Amino acid sequence: PLKSDERAVSTCLDTPNWKDKDGYGCDHYEDMYESGCSGTDKWAGNMGLAINHCCFCGGGTHAVPPTTSSSSSICTEDTEGWFDQEGWDCVLYEINDDPGCPKYGNKTAHTNSAVKGSAIDHCCFCQIDVANNVSPTVAPSSSEICVDTLEWRDDNGKGCKKYQEMLDPGCLLPLPTGSIFTGDMGLAVSAAVSAAVENCCYCKNPTCEDFTWKCEERTNIWWTLADQCIEDSSKKCQVASNWKFVETGVCDKAASCSCGTDQFKIVTKYYDDNGVDYFNETVGLYNECKCDFWLRRCEDTLGQGQACDYAAEYCCGDYRYDAGIETFKFLNSPQCYCDFYNYAENKFAHKLKPKALNVEKEFTSPCGPFKTYWLSKSGLEKISLELIYNGTNGQNWTNNVGWKDETVDHCEWYGISCDADGFVTDIDLRDNNLVGQFPIYTRDVNSSGDPILDNTWRLTKYGLASLYKLKTLDLAENELTGTIEYAPLYNLVALTYFDVSENQLSGELEAQVAPSIKYADFSSNNFMSMRRFVQYKASSFQTLRFCDVSNNVIQQDAADLLENTPPKIKQFIASNNQFYGSLPASLDNLPKLRQFEMASNALSGILPDFTESFATLQELDLSNQTKGFTGPIPEDVWRSLSLKILNLAGSMLTGTIPSLVGNLAVLEVFDVSNNFLDSSLPSELGMIGGGGSLKHLDLSSNAFTGTIPFQ
């Protein structure tokens, strides 16, 4: 440990790759909290507390700078956005100058540079003390923090940054045959690479960020080459096919680094003694973290569909390949695989291929008659209902008439409705004192007591998960706790209504909970995150109309969450959470939107253009943001003839209220208080709610002049 006097002059470094339980790093804490980060213990994950790992929060690693250095800190990162009068950034100084930048280091910044000052102020290469030979530094910590040997160059004059550009993390050789970097970029020989491994952290001890960054770069290289090679037969196009497959290896390492190594197993079973007819199946393939990682790459419009192969497996789970009949069976969620199959084919003309089983075949269509195969007998649904009763303290329900009474058909139990065949279609147990975990259960033995693998969900998932004809589920206003296992619910292809509001549920919520979902209410719980909307779930992406996630503790980037907002949604309510960042421009393309509420969050930036949405928008409430929107109110707001509620109070909006405000003829609530609006109030203000609809008007705490005109 450092002495107190050493700590006072030390350089604080955040623990590399530290993340909280929701995947947020130290930068997020600096944006969202006051210094010291008090009250953040509840976000701790398996990597520990922010107060122990983030400098801003009082943690991190304090490393005493070398006594031979003239500086009290080690430069580890160039200033982003700086460039000099000639347009040179720090990389060009590294290429064209000597360590310490004695030739050009005093050139000042360009007038358009993000920051002022010279290269010596902003470039690590120009801050090297040539008289002192500093090798890669490791700070005294449980997590090693590596710092490049800043003055190191190979025999060709290339430094660590050039190796980062040319090679994959770890700097392994050889490159793929015909690499576009060989020769063209002056790649060093193996001996030089060995030296780089000793002097460059990217080569010696690559991080998750290194693999993730290189994954993106490699993918972009392939996409760029593929685009250029349509009418080009140059050398770089001849090797494009090599790069097409390179990125998956780097990306696989990035996924494993971020999400952990794969834990799934492959089971092989033979039909005969000769070992000819067999089937392979995965066990434990479903992985939410890797699902999100690969799905983001699958969704990119420049992609070629390869990433969808990986995304489908991690998002949809286990499957089986039967070599005897050369076909696949989807064991966890055939509907999920069906969605992916159609998405990849429609968007990329790509046929999904298995990766985990490494079978040299394309997936057979998952969209066959699985719905019939997955239907249970109506008598078994009674067993599932009984298990729900037992698991949620049924004997103490407010109303349990008929439940577990052998003389009463299960379709006549309180809150249960069935179709003519005895399949459960509706469950309404609202405000009925249900207590316990959300009722999805997993069995690990069959009816004979023999153990079974948890990879065939038709056999292992029960409770709500086995009611395959369920259409509506209302469990609101109860005492349900814990998390929801969403993946099995996606097999409920008829479910359209899902209400679990006013419980004590936590963890993550997913609005696209079922393929046909229209109404999803998760409000007034303790959910801490929300899965972003995804287009591959094409059915629910088109069917969702109502989504309420208000009154939770969701801490998430609003732009990432809402980038793919379902296009036919009518009501989205997310007030009283901790959403941060700006709103995406995609909100402009929601022609059926009637109600949009994200009040009492931490949103910032400028208000998006709701032009298309304002044709139907009736309620817009973005009031009381802890950070606040800036800039003017978009002009098209004042042209909305259907708007009834406009609440933009409690932000940092500037500008004026124009005469167009008189168009708001049916407005009932108009609140822009506590902003920085100014200028004289227009006479047309008296025309709003012209038919006498205006009930609430608040313009206070601004810089308006004049009086409020009434007509």
Structure overview:
- The protein has 711 residues and is of the alpha/beta class.
- Helices cover 23% and strands 16% of the residues.
- It contains 19 helices and 32 strands.
- The strands form seven sheets. Strands 9-10-14-16-18-20-21-23-25-27-29-31 form a twelve-stranded mixed sheet, with no helix packed on it.
- A hairpin with a 5-residue loop joins strand 9 (416-418) and strand 10.
- It starts with a helix and ends in a 6-residue tail after the last strand.
- Residues 1-10, 62-72, 131-143, 174-189 and 222-247 have low confidence and may be disordered.
TL;DR of this structure?
By secondary structure, the protein is an alpha/beta fold. The chain contains 19 helices and 32 strands.
Count of helical segments?
Answer: 19
Averaged pLDDT = 80
Distance between the termini: 74 Å
How helical, in percent, are the residues? 10-25%
Tell me, what's the shape?
Answer: globular
Say what oligomer this is: single chain
Low-confidence stretches: 1-10, 62-72, 131-143, 174-189, 222-247
Percentage of residues in strands: 15-25%
Radius of gyration, in Å, reads 30 Å
Q: Which structural category do the helix and sheet elements fall into?
A: alpha/beta
What strand order characterises the main sheet?
9-10-14-16-18-20-21-23-25-27-29-31
How would a crystallographer describe the biggest sheet? Answer: 12 strands, mixed
Q: What is the strand tally?
A: 32
